[in-house]
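Hi there,

I know you've been waiting on this one. I reran it after we fixed the sequence typo, so this is the corrected version. Both the input and the resulting structure follow.
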Amino acid sequence: MPSGYATMPIWWLFSVARQPQSDAMTLLAPQTAATVTADGHVDVHLDGRPVRLHPQWLREQSTEPGQIEATNRQRLFTPIDFPPDLRAVAAELEGDTLTVTFTDDHRCSLSATVLTQRLGWVPDPEAPPAPIAWDPDNLPFPTVSWPTIAGQLDEPGVAEATVQFLGDFARHGFVIIRDTPQVEGTVETVANHIGYISGNNFGWVFDVRNEPKPTDLAYTAIELKAHTDQPYRKSQPGLQLLHCLANGAQGGDSLLVDGFAATETLRRERPDLHEVLATVPVDFRYDMGSDVVVDTGPMIELDANGQFRQMRYNTKLDLPIPVDGADLDGWYEGRRWLSAWMDDPAHQAVFRLDPGDLMFMDNHRVLHGRTEFDPTSGHRHLQGCYIEHDGPDTRYRLALRQLGTQPA
């Protein structure tokens, strides 16, 4: 079941059918008959297309009384509760409702609109916007004022501001949150408002400042090239939040680079190198003797359709694994290509954080860094933490529901 529908109220699933449909969005073809095949499948036309539906796939979507728990909408049955030869014995399509009866005597009504979504034919109406590759010349630098999103979604204006904020984040991979309190612990407050803070060996909240015995290069004053954080974790942190408390030192400007744009450009210009970086396994390792974290995976991770999913990029911590057939010449050439592309000022958004600014960024996509700074010239102190993508995704969907609308 696609994300979001397990908790979707039943009135929403069926109310879409009662909304007038434009000619371009007609869900049902002139052929409206539903028939049962000899092997118990259901043949039906949905969204103008014929489809044969598996009986158990239909049966498990039943929301009739006794099939799901009323509050959390989770199933009350298990796979072994169905006979292995479960079949449909009758089917009828009327308007947007497909009614099916099964050999276990269960009868359920399903929304044809929702079925087309679960078939993957139409987009999830509550999904955040798709990513848009950017460079500084075409980037509408996304910002939001914290007070506009800090309240509950049912407060005036909060849902609208939240949809805009998280929509910008989904498109561009980052947003600068302005006007936050300039006090320690604010980053945790923001994180837990939008999602759920994730802890690790650096703690729940970590301080980014010059340290005499740094446990990470971030805790020095040296320049940091664009990178993603903690690629050595089994689950690389999804989002990073960095809150500026003080930035009085000379230097220390922040920079962001779009890893999605970088890898898609590599795919277009050098598909051979893109293939190597997406397939050769890499040993990502953090090891300071008293602490060690290790994971293995490609630098570029693609989804089942070959589309960008995430990037693990930190040249201080990576080592390709020379498995049989691994093209290490291509791997090193590809990493060098990416390093040069991302080190080009034409692809870097460089700016200075002021106290009260908070960088909210997708650690699977947007790489961050900073210029060198002089710790003797002034105080520089950021606090950071991580959350996962589930939090912003959930809040975006709930904000849409509060508005009773869908994004354009």
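Quick highlight: Confidence is low (pLDDT under 50) at residues 1-31.

Best,
R. S.
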